[in-house]
Amino acid sequence: MYVAHDDELVIVSRLPLEVIGGQGHEFGWGSVVEVTPAEQSDGRGPLSGVLYSLAIVFGLMGALLLFADVFVGSFLLLVAAAAAGGALLYGMRQRPGLISAPHLASDRDQHHLIVDEQDRQVFSDAIDLCQRTTETWPQLGALVDVPIAERQLAQALFDLAGALERRQELRELHGELAEHDGAFELAPRMARATEALAELEDEVTRRLATLNAVAVAGEELIRDQRIDELGREADETLARLTSAPPAIAPDAGSELAERTEAVLRAYRELT
Question: Where do transmembrane segments lie in this chain (predicted)?
């Protein structure tokens, strides 16, 4: 499954999404591939600055030499133009790309489009929960059938995106109906929209709670495993250190003190 997002929208699709016309990033986890345009840049990286500087230098030299030597001056102007063109091309390639969903119109049922800022934040939170879940799998070992779990997690995200898409459309319709609250003929439709919106709110909440429960369950199981392991280590250490009293070793300090005292006593007796 693909998830493409920028500052204005989120597209969740079972079909490939990509970034075109500029730079973008892909990040995969589980069976999900996240696609996002690169961050906005002014295009003036180190290479671009060098090329612009060369264009200015060769342009000035070419203009000065054009009157004295036509061939050299023309050649330098061509070099300056090439450097400027290279800097412009480099800057264009460094700019952020645009999200492309080539099958959005033809396969609308395979895509969910989320544009509302609140709904996009909810979906972002859901992605965080799913990533937390996948991070627990390596430590759970055979307790999790990873291929099946990946497909189920991707499907859960796709279904949540569908609920969010329906909610934002229904919220928009509800707002339009609310503008004509006094119209008698719209009252039944307003009631149906209000009821449907409440049901969708409950569905979104339930789906988020389920994803959170999955993530927390894996983390708690790992914590319990660690506690059990620590308990076994503590039992082994305590058994080794406390099972039998250690043999009393001679106290070297006491022995030295006694010897020193004996020497001093003998010295006093002699004097």
Answer: 50-68, 74-92
